[in-house]
From TrEMBL, chain B:
This is ABC transporter substrate-binding protein. The lineage of its organism: Bacteria, Pseudomonadati, Pseudomonadota, Gammaproteobacteria, Cellvibrionales. CDD domains: PBP2_NrtA_CpmA_like. Residues 1-27 form the signal peptide. Keywords: Cell inner membrane, Cell membrane, Membrane, Signal, Transport. PANTHER family: ALIPHATIC SULFONATES-BINDING PROTEIN-RELATED, BLL4572 PROTEIN. It comes from the Bacteria. It comes from Microbulbifer elongatus. SUPFAM superfamilies: Periplasmic binding protein-like II (SSF53850). It is found in: Endomembrane system.
Amino acid sequence: MNTTTVNAEKISGFKLPQLSELLTGALVSSAIRLVALPLAGILAFLLLWSITAQNIDTSLGKFPGPAAVMEQFNALYDEHQRSREKEQAFYERQEKRNAERVAKDPSYEPRIRAYTGKETFLDQIITSLVTVMSGFLLAVAIAIPLGIAIGLSKPLNNAINPIIQVFKPVSPLAWLPLVTMVVSALYATPDPVVAKSFLVSLITVTLCCLWPMVINTAVGVAGIDKDLVNVSKVLRLPALRHVQKIVLPASVPMIFTGMRLSLGVAWMVLIAAEMLAQNPGLGKFVWDEFQNGSSNSLARIMAAVLVIGVIGFLLDRGMLTLQKLVSWDKSANQ
Amino acid sequence: MSWKKPVKTLAASLALAVGFTITPASGKELGYPEKEELTFGFIKLTDMAPIAIAYEKGFFEDEGLYVTIEAQANWKVLLDGVIDGRLDGAHMLAGQPIAATMGFGTKADIITPFSMDLNGNGITVSNAIWEEMKPNIPKMEDGRPVHPIKADALKPVVEKYKADGKPFNMGMVFPVSTHNYELRYWLAAGGIHPGFYAPHKGDTSGQIDADALLSVTPPPQMPATLEAGTIYGYCVGEPWNQQAVFKDIGVPVVTDYEIWKDNPEKVFGITREFAEKYPNTTVRVTRALIRAAMWLDENNNANRPEAVKILSQSNYVGADYDVIANSMTGTFEYEKGDKREVPDFNVFFRYNATYPYYSDAIWYLTQMRRWGQISEDKPDQWYKDLAAKVYRPDIYAAAAKSLIEEELATADQFPDFETEDGFRNPQTHFIDGIVYNGQKPNEYIEKFAIGLKSGQKL
């Protein structure tokens, strides 16, 4: 008995630590992989940035380092808060003015007009996000049906392919002047539902992020396993059911790859379009600051650059998650 | 952004304020504005101040106007915005409504009821050009150069570049900009030919026969373009000359105050259609702008520091306080450290600065003819008719009179509207000593050594 216990103890004493060691080893290594290494990378980047920044002299002062950018983040947030207070006061003044006018002229129907102050940095972020998502969704609505049609029909593919090939490599911004003029000409209502600038940004984004989705969808649809197509043929599925039951599920991974590519393009195009056309959003913020040429401008632009980068990253992650959720192919990775 | 409106309206209705009466600033005779929500465009320059002040000091709101103010990328975008209705009105170059009405560039009926300021521009050259110019400039006892500096000092430099086969590039902000005409005026007064336009031959670059090649750059980009070496000098409004001093990349050599003392500058432009469709709104906008201009010049410029603070906000001009203050508070810094008193560098109300004089419009037309933008001779009456089509002292007078009635202003602050004919007395303070009489534009054009004369056509 004694010996067995001892043995057992010996065994357990010998084995258990090894297991936990293994476990902690795995934990440590994954901690290093997931936290420490990225952290080290970021720290090294910040250090490098800081050192480089100190050695770049521009005519607007030194290139902003991490500290200066952080300071501007705070300043931008304060500005946002102040702007909200001003907004409050604006509405209060308006209420007063309306009440006064009603007192004088009872037939007057008071209206509340939207705040006319400047858009803060946070407002610009929201504007850009709304614009990019609207443009992207519009592109999805056009590209996926078009891609499926092209993928299913060889003749259609032959007809449309040259157009796609020609338009795909067009620099996004080459569209901008055309879009601006066309929107101005066609969208001439006195009381527009959405602002023209919003429409211009949106259509430019749509035009540019259409192509990766069309191509990927078409390729995905055309490349469906022959067995699946044969099954559909044997079952004599009607066209719509064929698309619904066979084509869509089978090509979902490719479609989502296309969507992910497109969203990345959309975000890049939007910022550039906003800069060029001075449409509201982060791009306008960057350009305004460049034009201001104040001693804080570079740090503020850098702050915007970081925000643009982080948002781009989050959009991509979001699409990836969505892709994994709807796709049976769990191997889709970074 | 329109998509935000519902949210904001909701927020506003939640934020119900307790109403108590304040004295209305709006007159009884003058009706309520037909259009209350307006969008005005501007370019990042200190002379947009009346618009910013009218907004920040609540003068627009006093008129029942809810105005959004948007910076524009360049003068072309701004003009197109007003024409296509994206903007209801804008801070404009005086030449823009005139040229648009005439059909040079874009054709559109644009009018102005309000002139925005006098002076406010400068000509800056790069440090390298300044070093080459310096030996040609006489010095005062303390060693500083004698001002005004004439283009005579630049002439040998330009000639050297020409002899070396290098183009001498300079920047201005728009083909019909004050800056284009001021730079040309200064250059030509010093014997440097700035080049002709020939629109009837499709040549709108303005470089025919030129010694110095002038090209267009938007105002806020001037310092960056100079720094990049694309141009050797430029003419632009403030704060972009002082910015060059602060950034240590260039030296302002002359201000427009020295080229032509108290010259008319920007105007507030709207379409004729807007003025006809919304007459009350037009008068109310003019009232608010007049009050803003008065505020800017009040008590001997006492409000200027506050104005500078407002303009330095990133949504207006956005440059640093110090840079804007340098010229807005009665001084101007030439070469770094050489800060001189120029009390009238920026005039917003004094000397009837805001009254839209026909003679001011006609001066611009004479320069358009001088440089070939108007390709053929026109009779004096043509100049006057066009000026009367664009400049609208009638709207200004209506606004001013109602302000006087409400005791927001006094009659002695304005020209005598009963006798005013819209022509300033012949003006003498030009750098080349030539006298300008707006009544006789053709006679005036004949006086220049460089420039098209009657009967000449390119």
